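hiii so my PI (J.) wants the whole complex modelled not just the main chain, which honestly fair. so below is everything: three entries, each one labled with what it is. i double checked the lines twice but i was tired so who knows lol
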Amino acid sequence: MRRIIVECDKCDGCKNCSAACMQAHRETDGTIYDLDLTDPKNESRNYILKDAQGRYKPLFCRHCDEPECVKSCMSGALTKDPESGHVFYDETRCGSCFMCVMNCPFGVLKPDRVSKSRVIKCDFCVNAGGEPSCVLSCPKKAIHVEEV
Amino acid sequence: MKYVIVGVGVAGIEAAKEIRKKDADGDILMISADAQIHSRCMLHKFIAGERDEKGLDFTELDFFEKYRIHWKSGVRTKKVCPEEKEIILDDGEHVSYDKLLLANGADSFIPPVGDLRKASNVYGLRNLTDAQAIVKEAEGAEEVLVIGSGLVGLDAAYGLLERGKKLTIVEMVEQILPVQLDAHGAAAYQELFEKAGVRFVLGRRASEAVCEEDGRIHKVKLDNGEELACDLVIVAAGVRPAISCLEGSGIDCERGITVDSHMRTSQEDIYAAGDITGRSGIWPNAADQGQIAGRNMCGMEVEYTDTFAIKNTINFFGLVTLCVGRIKPEEGDDIRMKEDRTQYKRIILKDGKVEGVLLQGNIANAGTWQYLIKNQIDVSRIEKDIFDINFADFYHISERGEYMWA
Amino acid sequence: MNQCYGCNTCKSADKPLEEFIAGLPLETSHHRVEGQSTKCAFGLQGVCCRLCSNGPCRITPESPRGICGANADTIVTRNLLRAVASGSGCYIHVVENTALNVKNTAKNRGEIKGIGTLNRLADIFGIDEADEHKRAEAVADAVLQDLYLPEYEKMRLTEKLAYTPRYEKWKELGILPGGAKSEVFHGVVKCSTNLNSDPVNMLLDCLKLGISTGIYGLVLTNLLNDIVLGEPEIRFAPVGLRVIDPDYINIMITGHQHSMFTFLQNRLTDEDVKEKARKVGAKGFKLVGCTCVGQDLQLRGVHYTEVFDGHAGNNYTSEAILATGGIDAVISEFNCTLPGIEPICDELKIKQICIDNVAKKANAELKEFDFENRPAVTEEIIDEIVEAYQARRGSVPMNLMKEHGYENTLTGVSEISLKKFLGGNWQPLIDLIVSGDIKGVAGVVGCSNLTAGGHDVLTVDLVKELIAKDIIVLTAGCSSGGIENCGLMTPEAAKYAGPKLRAVCEKLGIPPVLNFGPCLAIGRLEIVATELAEALHVDLPQLPLVLSAAQWLEEQALADGCYGLALGLPLHLGLPPFVSGSKVAVKVLTEDMKKLTGGQVIINADAKDSADILEGIILEKRQGLKI
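here's the output for the full assembly
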């Protein structure tokens, strides 16, 4: 499968990946220039965490080999695609129980901010060309896609 | 090889999937009382009218065809006969097996109070058939009494609110959701339910419920003498593993079926997973047990080790809560709390380890807590506010790019 | 493998140049575009604030305010005001130096080359002085006095130079500028940490800075230069890398302050100096035009035919010009002198000299222009350049591009020369506009950048789209350098125009794109607009006239743009000026501005869409005029 590989030592914490993610998943048409950065509906699926020493640790969905989120999904909304290996989320099936949020050991998942009815989850940008927008936007090339 | 799985809940379904993955040619037969695959965690959505029966199905499209599984639905298992390596169904059929998985779950527990067990308008909420019956009964009902304010009781109430019913919930403890939440977290939900019109009667238990001539209960008397009128009673007082069919089978049971770490029962070639074992607790564990049972049935040696099950998420009225680990404070606990307009968080620390976490209002990216608690990780060395601890503090990446806990 | 520095150079509208740069063994800005192609989204939207030690703060849905509480609107407009104030400061620096040079020239009874302009200004200013040198000094003094007024005293020449309906509008809006230098001061104070937080208030200040920038920095700089450097005259001239003649000692000039070169320019054609060149084997000295000061020299080229070889290219052509190997020295006095020329100059042993310390380059020798001592300093500069010529010629490989550019490019267009060309008044142009032979006028002005499609890509594509719609294009700034090197300023370019405009051009023997010269000449273009409005008895926003700074680059362009908006003109930008993160700023600039001044900002990076939008505005204005 193809996975986004993270090299945390290269991360500068610019959050361009987060902005690119919001842009790739916005509801409205438009460019990065008019992405509304004050609209809580625009949410990133990736996060730049910091450890106690202040070092940046990018948190991106791993599309795990044995995804805990899928195991915990009681509605069938989360599935691991046997072909691509990616974990996809079907919003229409989701029961909004958020057990997936609780079960992701790395804390990648979260409920959507506004309606608390959906899960905010990386989709590998399948609807935006299949090349993750975050990867394309990283000025430090701290993330890249690799066949693993 | 003939695999027989009793039950089409998550444990049974996951076991079947695993078996098919490992054994492409084996016969898999699933047998269930349920006529429709459904997620028990979404029954409230059916009651509310948000979803139909099909909308509760949690399996993939064309599941049985895709995995080449035979399914015999609408039948109960009456007897398990390890000697003969067969089970007997309530339609009289004898079904033989090479490997048997008992994953037929649990039944609602109706306490022996008054005529609750006898009356025709008293329901538990465990299966789709329960939900269907409640919906039907609710058509003519105005006042609904719910006994028990756990997740199932509140689910039922939440669904029926959508149908415009007048609801009263009786809870024997002084707070709602006593298993999941502390009083403060529970009060937030109580307020939301009350705003929606629900009346709570806390610290009381039902003491009398008389079945009238029509075979129904029209009022329930509480231990303080108060009488609550009702057209429909939902009892949400917990479940009991569905082990009645095991009588005479020689399968060891305590509360539920006793299993070893391989999900094996005391009888050869018989496995058990899910609520029938009385040790799964919630969905992810049932799924895990089912997968592990399935693998072992195929001859693999896999142990069920991730047994931690004291965990839950709650979502009513858009107020989300995550509770993992111990809720009740004990002597010597270091309790940390934070609260603001949008959230309430409480962490129970003991000897540098997190023993319980309760997050209400904002559970974003909170998955790491379960790992910290169940693995009893010492967090005292991390020079951070306890609430700011996250995966960055344990960040490690495997060769295949997966995250690992350092 | 070959010797190319890198094969990922950006596109250029100038294909031969693109190929030339791609083949260079040196790194240029065109090579660096790809490496900088990932842009910080917060920077792009202008919602990153570094005004205090709590920062940088960035606006996200989770953090809609900076630590101090500033929201996106405050952060964006503070950043914009800071940029506009800075840009204004640049132009005010230019006009200040220019006025000082006029004053000093006059005091020393130097040559007055543009008596017509001197008299015109004296007339406007109400200066009645018989002696031409004293008259010139008084004109320069009047400008300088205004520049040095405090912020609370309105500049006196604004009313005299502005079109009356505009002046009244500015007065009504409370945006008449005080002393131009003080306004810059006021602007930078206003947008400092925890001062102003009112986005509209700061945007109005941008307009105010636009007015002082436009009237003083642009309009007056041109006219003051005309006095000492001579007025533009329409003629044909060669452009592009072809202008470099390796038989001469070649000096590339960059900057915006032409009047600083006057003395040197004249000395280079004196016999004794030419002899210095001949002694080392060169035929003499040539100035090679680059950036706006090159455009200015081209514009007035009729007065400098001997020393000026022609304009080679704009800011982002400067590296290529040096890479030809034919340049022996760079003299710079202002922007746009790219820092990226330094390693190239080192590599090719090109002498770098700066004559204004505001533009001191890291490896250049600073020889500050000093009016008093200009003969001595000029001799030193000449000797050092001769030395550089000797040191490098023969050892540095030549990589000339004799075929690049065009031989017959129309230049020398100004508000005076164009009117003269039309027979002494604007009526012929007005008639053509009324008849629809010319649908409207578009000023495609400002800089060149590498990101709006590539080097001059949007600018040139937009110009082609506009002329095809019978809209005549007037240019000023580095945009001109790109457009002329693509051949759109030769009479043959008439074939790209729509049938009506083409007929007009062919009849008059002119291209459909007329070059007014440096960015400073945006001021000239706006004089044309004002005179047209006057002739029609309408206000500026009513004219079928649009502006586009399609490939605006820098802070100065933003100050220019604010002048355009203050004049009430529609202003197209290819890329947003880091404001899109603020809903208030976007609304004020793109919508509310129509009610405030009559202007509006249009942001669009697509040439065809932009041309359609601008045509729509022109048609609307025509309708308003019932033509």
